[in-house]
Each structure stands twice: as C-alpha cells, then as structure tokens.
From TrEMBL:
Residues 5-36 form the Glutaredoxin domain. It comes from the Archaea. This is Glutaredoxin family protein. SUPFAM superfamilies: Thioredoxin-like. The lineage of its organism: Archaea, Methanobacteriati, Methanobacteriota, Stenosarchaea group, Methanomicrobia.
C-alpha cells in the first residue's frame, strides 16, 4: 500500500511532510482531509483528529503530533519505516 497523506488547503506542516517524503524517495498519495470519503476512511481507522496532516500506512495511522519531532522535523523513524 502506498502511504496516504491527508492534508488541508492551508497547512504548512502538510507541505513539510510532503517535502520530506519526496526528498526521501517515498511515493505517497495525497487526499483532501475535508472530503466525506477521507473522513470516513480516517474514522474507520479510529482516527478522529481534525489536525492535519495525517499519514496512513497499511498498518498504522500517524497523527500530526506523532509525525513531527520536537524540533519540527518529520520523525526519522517514520521515514525509515516507509523507505522501500
């Protein structure tokens, strides 16, 4: 499964996450977090946050607070787990 990044229109952290994934050579699909289908997908995976971005993999859902380290960078462990 290609990771899915759920984003909002105005979201600096969404841009940071997408840039980090691209730089790491990780393919991903971007979806608008505000659509009905996206909300259903997230709720079905027990994700009820309204804060973007959300990163969904085959077996894990990472909310914004899990994606970013204290210094504001994307957590290196998440990037390592997603590398092909």
């Amino acid at each position: 499964m290609i990771p899915i990044v759920y984003t909002l229109d105005v979201c600096p952290n969404c841009e940071k996450l997408k840039a980090a994934l691209t730089e790491a050579g990780i393919e991903f699909e971007e979806r608008d977090m505000q659509t009905r289908d996206s909300l259903v997908d997230l709720r079905c995976r027990a994700c009820f946050t309204q804060e973007a971005p959300v990163l969904m993999t085959e077996d894990q859902v990472y909310e914004s607070k899990q994606i970013f380290s204290q210094d504001g960078s994307v957590d290196s462990g998440i990037l390592a787990a997603l590398r092909p």
